[in-house]
Amino acid sequence: MDGFIQAIELQKIYHVGNQKIEAVKGVSLQVPRGDFIVILGHSGSGKTTLISMIGGLTRPSLGKVYIEGIDLWDLGDKELSRFRNKKIGFIFQSFSLLPSLNVLNNVLMPVIFSKKAKKDRKALQSKAHSILSDLNMADKLNSYPSELSGGEQRRVAIARSLINDPDIILADEPTGELDIRTEHEVIEIFRNINEVYKKTIIVVSHSLSWMQKAKKVIVMKDGLVQRDIADPVEILMGGHK
Amino acid sequence: MRVFRLAIKELIRRPQRNALLMLAIVVSIALITSLTIVGNSANKTILEVIAKTGHTLTVKPAITEENATSLGNLTTTEVVIGKYIPETVIPEIKKLYDKAIQSGWEKRGTLLTSIGSIEKEIRIEPPTWAPRLYEKVRFKDKDIIVAGVEFDKEYFVRFWWNLSSGEWPTDATRLREVHEDEALIGGSLSTALGYKTGDRITINNMELRILGVLEETNSPDDYMLFIPLKTAQKIFNKKGLVSLLSVRAMCPQCPVGDAMVELNKTITGITAVSQLDVAQVQFDFFNMLYKFLLAVIISTIAVGIFSIFNTVTGSLYARVREIGMLKAVGASGFQLLRIFLYEQLILGLTAGIVGYTVGIGLAYILNSLLGIKAIIKLNPEYIWRALIFGVICSLAAIIYPAYKLSKIKITETFRTQWEI
Lengths: 241, 420
Hints:
The structure holds two protein chains of two kinds.
Chain A: E1 5-16, E2 19-31, E3 36-41, H1 47-54, E4 62-67, E5 70-71, H2 77-87, E6 88-91, H3 103-112, H4 121-134, H5 150-162, E7 168-172, H6 180-196, E8 200-205, E9 216-221, E10 224-229, H7 233-238
Parallel strand pairs in A: 3-8, 3-9, 6-7, 7-8
Antiparallel strand pairs in A: 1-2, 1-4, 4-5, 9-10
Chain B: H1 3-13, H2 15-53, E1 56-61, E2 69-71, E3 74-76, E4 85-86, H3 90-107, E5 118-119, E6 122-123, E7 128-139, E8 142-149, H4 151-157, E9 163-166, E10 182-185, H5 187-193, E11 200-203, E12 206-214, E13 224-228, H6 229-235, E14 241-242, E15 244-248, H7 256-266, E16 270-274, H8 275-318, H9 320-328, H10 333-369, H11 380-406, H12 410-413
Parallel strand pairs in B: 8-13, 10-12
Antiparallel strand pairs in B: 1-15, 1-16, 2-3, 4-14, 5-6, 7-8, 7-15, 9-12, 10-13, 11-12
């Protein structure tokens, strides 16, 4: 099997009352290490369900997810939590920061749940400082989420996703609700993370702005991969159907 | 940062909600603590009275509340001034008493040939009769009560008396002769007048030597000067008169109540009161009141816990998205459960401490409002009970919703965000 991340025939069926909703209808993906993939699609296309199955957040109805050869959905709750904590950094559109913690502690939050918490305390703090400096947030260490702009909150969430040095970053609408200028700044940060930190990134978005920076674009429609484009410029030139 | 610190920070974030949540537990603990403290202290005080008075009957002239005497900050009808029982009546009282005790035992199935005999393994000692004569005198611009007593009898009847200094005017074991000019002084009176052992005090031109100072007993005795009965009758010109007769039955289950009824029925102009019966009635009444209040409080707490459960459930579900985010960044169900449990543990312990403190204050207020006059005694066990109760209430309210939430699927927590 090729690919750092492998999704094989993923299918997700939700039961709402007597209704059966097929959110993802047998999607297979191969993501090499260090790739930067953007999944585009309209609301209801199944892109968020797909990324949440890949990230170990939603159990697929059918199909398998392998990360570095490990069958993700074969793990128990504790192992899966540990795996997510160690291997995957998540960035959400909203509700991503704890209001009771300052920027530094929000970034360090995943550490609380890892085995690193007791050791390397100083090293982890200096790592958080360094990541926040790279994201131009060094002067906001002691600020609370309510004191930050939307773009700044997003940067803190990005810093948090990097603190455990995961191999994979999964982001769901990380530029949603941001103005164009901030959106471009955030996209640039993701590109840097991919190039400088060598992280494998999968982003789910509505926005076409991602296409300029992504290495690969997947377009989803009605729970299926409609197009799989290795050269995103093609989309820009031809438009997205 | 650790899970525990995260829990503290989450608690601090919602001070008002948490304060309200704690309030229900604090009120419950305060009510239970205060009632327990007052209840136990009152019962203990009453039991001490029972233990002190034993099976004692007091016979005094028939009086009304108007005859109450003020002693320091104490107003009592136990001390009657200006009304007397002639000593000539005493043999009749004794005779009636003995007869009533005898028939009381017979009613209980014990045959008594005479007082002092042994029947069915019960030895009935003859009772001790201790007469007193009370007179009020003006001394150093203060009204003081002089009690004429027979010290050798008093020694048996007031067996809880102790001396803080000096010696007894009489001692049954040494059979020391009582001198007519010897006196004992009550603890409070000694302090008020500044008189101590060895001092001399002149009452109605009679110089008396203070032989000892009594330890405080929280009774009218603390405000009295005790002199020999014969001396008192002489200097106050009250020969052949007494103000009070105390009878100690000298047997554990003597039917003193029967004697009381018989005396009150037969002899006019006197009132007989069984101290044991009075204390027992107080004890029973207070126990009944205590049980009633406890039942009311427990019902209130049951309702309170239900409301705490609702509040906690509501507040946890309000945090459902945070919970999803914490799970997404790697928190296991057990780690999430730990956060909630720590939060509730801190709340419960804080509520326990606050509730206990408020409860102590409330106990003093209740004691004063209900006029129980119990000597409040704090027991270290109460604080442990308060803390354990606080923690149990707090945890009981959270365990189910916390368990459910710790098992929630992450995508369910982001339902509005993680669209399909």
